[in-house]
Amino acid sequence: MASSRILFVVSILLCSFAMHSCYASELFSNLKKSILVTSSAKHGQVLKSGEANITVTWSFNKTFPAGADSTYKTVKVKLCYAPISQKDRGWRKTKDELKKDRTCQHKIVKRKYEASKNSVTWTIERDIPKATYFVRVYVFNAEDKEVAYGQTTNTAKKTNLFEVEAITGRHASLDIASVCFSVFSIVSLAGFFYLEKRKGSSQQK
Fold it and tell me: Which interval of the chain is the signal sequence (predicted)?
């Protein structure tokens, strides 16, 4: 009887520990900052969406013990809103709980994890809104859970932030398409009147 109670208590403790571990892994504050990240975008630089490129490089921080990245399987590189562009914008709010965090909404690339020599050159997409950004790399384990990260900015000093200038007005290709459509419409209308006039003349004869 006593042994059954002991087993029951041990089972509850193990379950509680497992639940706590799962929950803890879902908090940003519990992720290891074991990835070094750099970006070609300079602090304060203004980049145009749809035109400018940024090159992001990342690698494992070797100041961590060897083998500390043994569970790392994949990485996701993301474009993230800086605090100044989150103010009064709840839909960009930073939350410690990763499922509720809205800091990094724009994916740059997803790749298999490699400890070094990682790089990607990305053209800023046309639908990226005007804001101030930084780059963050998330690392995932085999269960697709975030376990580590790295980013280009220093949270305390707010450095390595760059701006994206959104596209405004009409694009040149739209103007060209509009002109072509207008010319086609005029030609079609002229052809229609010519055929109607010719048809009328033939009927009078």
Answer: 1-24
| Contacts by 112-116, CB closer than 8 A, 24 or more apart | 112/73, 112/74, 112/75, 113/69, 113/72, 113/73, 113/74, 113/75, 113/139, 115/59, 115/60, 115/69, 116/59, 116/60
Q: Length of the chain, please?
A: 205
DSSP, collapsed to helix, strand or coil, labels residue 199 as helix
For strand 131-140 and strand 146-151, is the pairing parallel, antiparallel, or unpaired? antiparallel
Distance between CA atoms of residues 128 and 163, nearest Å: 11
Q: What is the overall mean pLDDT for the chain?
A: 82
Cβ neighbors of 60 (< 8 A, separation 6 or more) are: 34, 35, 36, 69, 72, 115, 116
CA 97 to chain centre: 18
Is the per-residue pLDDT at 30 higher than 60? yes
**Contact (CB, 8 A) for 63 and 98:** no
Phi-psi region of 112 (alpha: psi -120 to 50; beta: other; left: phi over 0): beta
* Residue that the structure tokens 């290709």 belong to: 173
> How much is the average pLDDT of 142-146?
97
